[in-house]
Amino acid sequence: MIGAIIGDIVGSRFEWDNHKSKEFELFTHECHFTDDTVLTMAIAKAIMETEKTIEPSPGRYGFDSDYYKLLSEMSIKFMQEIGRKYPYAGYGRRFHGWLFSNNPTPYNSYGNGSAMRISPAGFAARSETEAISLTKAITEITHDHEDGLKGAEATTMAIYMARQGNSKDEIKEKISTEYYPLHFMLDDIREEYTFDVSCQGSVPQAIKAFLESDSFEDTIRTAISIGGDSDTIAAIAGAIAEAHYGVPEELEKEALEYLDDELRGIYEDWQEFISGCYN
Q1: For a designed S-S bond to 78, which of 45, 84, 140, 181 qualifies (C-beta 3.0 to 4.6 A apart)?
Q2: CA atoms of 66 and 51, how far apart (whole Å)
Q3: Topology (CATH level 3) of domain 2-277
């Protein structure tokens, strides 16, 4: 999930001051982590804690309903527990209400918050079916609108397919057939593209930023260059790019310097957890 974290941090200074070019310094003193990183960490924590309680089935396929029920509960628990520690991270108004509610319920959202936090599911899943089920359990606790779920699921699926070694053409075909039409070029929309926090208005653009890139860093630069909700678009694109290209060690190290001890600790725990999943 370091790709999402890097995208968030790099994009943070451009969210309200769009920079429609790929020429800029990646990390500056104006950069900071936002709600994208906080909630991504919370979902990673939820997945890890769920698996401490319920052992996955052999090969990590076919979790039963108890697993997904607990994952939903853990997602609520840790998004609230961790999210409340960062009250000024940049949450949307309705999510902020959910975050501080004593009885949090889904609020029919189709916002891109569902996609920006979902990357841990894409990296934990061992099958397409599992990727979809993980996404649903995590997402529907807030984003129960079909477009909110679609944005999260498209992101998870792109990450999962990239991890499995599928080509960009195969990923594009899957997303175009089952989620969003991707037969456009970013150069053709860049000039008029504006801020849009809906899944349908930002997730396809983030996926295209990855598809049109030639490296991890180029993905981040391309995502920023179209403007809009820069930190979230770059976080989504960065997560997919991580799965496809990997992340240069120097960029990982630089991004981690922006995290506090608590978030850094969750990240380190996740690295150990996800490494164990693949061994």
Answers
A1: 45
A2: 11
A3: ADP-ribosylglycohydrolase fold (1.10.4080)
CA distance 149 to 193: 23
Mean pLDDT of 60-74: 81
3-state DSSP assignment of residue 196:
coil
> Among candidates 52, 40, 250, which has minimal Cα distance to 159?
40
- Residue 245: how many CB atoms within 10 A of its CB? 18
Predicted confidence band of residue 54 (pLDDT cuts 50, 70, 90): confident
Q: Which amino acid is at 93?
A: R
User: Residue 198 pairs with which residues in a beta bridge?
Assistant: 111
How many CB atoms are closer than 10 A to CB 165? 9
* Domain ranges, ordered by start, for the chain: 2-277
| Type of residue found at 88 | Y
pLDDT given for residue 177 in this prediction: 98
Q: Which of 9, 36, 43, 142 is nearest to 90 (CA)?
A: 36
Nearest alpha-carbon partner for 235 in 8, 1, 31: 8
* Contact between residue 147 and residue 35 where contact means Cβ atoms under 8 Å apart: no
Q: Which residue has the tokens 């981690």?
A: 256
pLDDT at 50 over 80: yes
For the chain, state the CA radius of gyration. 17
**Euclidean distance between CA atoms 251 and 1, whole angstroms:** 13
Q: Is 111 helix (H, G, I), strand (E, B) or coil?
A: strand
CB atoms under 10 Å from CB of 215, counted, come to: 14
Give the pair of three-digit tokens for residue 73.
Answer: 């509960």
pTM: 0.96
Asked if 206 and 175 touch (Cβ cutoff 8 Å), the reply is no
